[in-house]
From TrEMBL:
GO terms for cellular component: cytoplasm. It comes from Jeotgalicoccus coquinae. GO terms for biological process: carboxylic acid metabolic process. The lineage of its organism: Bacteria, Bacillati, Bacillota, Bacilli, Bacillales. It comes from the Bacteria. GO terms for molecular function: ornithine cyclodeaminase activity; oxidoreductase activity. Its EC number is 4.3.1.12. Transmembrane segments: none annotated. It holds the Pfam family OCD_Mu_crystall. Signal peptide: none annotated. This is L-lysine cyclodeaminase. InterPro entries: NAD(P)-bd_dom_sf, ODC_Mu_crystall, ODC_N. Belongs to the ornithine cyclodeaminase/mu-crystallin family.
Length: 313
């Protein structure tokens, strides 16, 4: 069995690889080649969580189980840490144990790239980033992979973290003009695309400020209690898409809240990534507000784990 660290994987496996592999797994999903169990989320303290995600690919004859720890109060360790165990289904042998923190962020960024490519305006030039933790970085990479972003606004409750995030983007080679902004309202009003990656239990921006034509990617919240978006944002959205319908019905706090409040019904969700990944641009005009909500599912992790195995096996 091989053991792979985040650093080893990051040196070879990039956002472009992840996008290709996620697209491939969505095809398998549509062909009923995926067997999965819904993610189990267990509380591990007041603000901490443990996540367990098993999945099987009948096409690849591979099984994975991902374990993720989320500890927001960490000081000397990452907030999110993970591991993926890969098993060969032809003989039951465990083939690899790989760090999954980077892969979790990367597959989520690849999913954001696919959604943004289908839903954001073709001429979108500005990206607003609300929350500059580790998860946010690959979300930016996903967006710049599919749109010609010239301006990036960064907002974080702790401005120093936003400044460090800016330097990280610059060091990575992101050439867009990057600005740390202290007024989240101004960010919303100026952004063509908004990436939101927080674990907030209260909305982090005002939906009433979304300008016509904005596309929103919401990837941070994953429990009933977490609500990055307010009801107004959801009510104003002309089109809402999600990564996985079963997952969001159990875990997307803001959508669950909106359904329970009668603002939308689950039937108002236009579709999932599996419904749209192989379609053309879905936007009908430049004034509709679109939302993509992501909570994650095991087959997305299987997609990137399988891609890594092809590189390292």
């Amino acid at each position: 069995m091989i053991t792979l660290t985040d650093k080893e994987i990051e040196e070879k496996y990039k956002i472009s690889h992840a996008i290709k592999d996620v697209n491939a797994i969505l095809k398998d999903y549509n062909e009923d080649k995926i067997v999965e169990s819904i993610r189990t989320v267990l509380p591990a303290g007041e603000d901490s969580s443990m996540l367990y995600m098993p999945c099987i690919s009948l096409t690849q004859q591979v099984s994975i189980i991902k374990t993720v720890s989320i500890f927001p109060t960490n000081k000397n360790l990452p907030t999110t840490q993970g591991n993926i165990l890969v098993t060969d289904l032809t003989d039951g042998a465990h083939k690899a144990s790989m760090d999954a923190s980077y892969l979790t962020r990367l597959r989520t960024g690849a999913m954001t790239a696919i959604a943004t490519d289908k839903l954001a305006r073709d001429d979108a030039k500005s990206l607003g980033v609300i929350g500059t933790g580790n998860m946010a970085f690959e979300q930016v990479l996903g967006v710049v992979e599919v749109r010609d972003i010239q301006k990036i606004y960064l907002y974080n409750r702790t401005a120093e973290k936003a400044e460090a995030f800016k330097k990280r983007l610059e060091d990575f080679g992101i050439w867009a003009d990057i600005e740390v902004i202290t007024d989240v309202d101004a960010l919303v009003e100026q952004s063509d695309i908004i990436n939101c990656a927080t674990q907030s239990k209260t909305p982090v921006y005002k939906g009433e400020l979304l300008k016509p034509g904005t596309h929103v990617n919401g990837v941070g919240s994953f429990t009933h209690e977490m609500k990055e978006m307010d009801r107004t944002a959801i009510e104003r959205a002309d089109h809402i898409y999600v990564d996985d319908m079963d997952g969001v019905k159990d875990e997307a706090g803001e959508l669950i809240d909106a359904v329970e409040a009668g603002i939308i019904s689950w039937d108002d969700i236009k579709g999932t990534l599996a419904d749209i990944y192989d379609q053309g641009h879905l936007r009908q005009n430049n004034t509709d507000i679109t939302i993509y909500k992501c909570v994650g599912a095991g087959y997305f992790d299987l997609a990137v784990a399988g891609g890594v195995m092809k590189m390292f096996a």
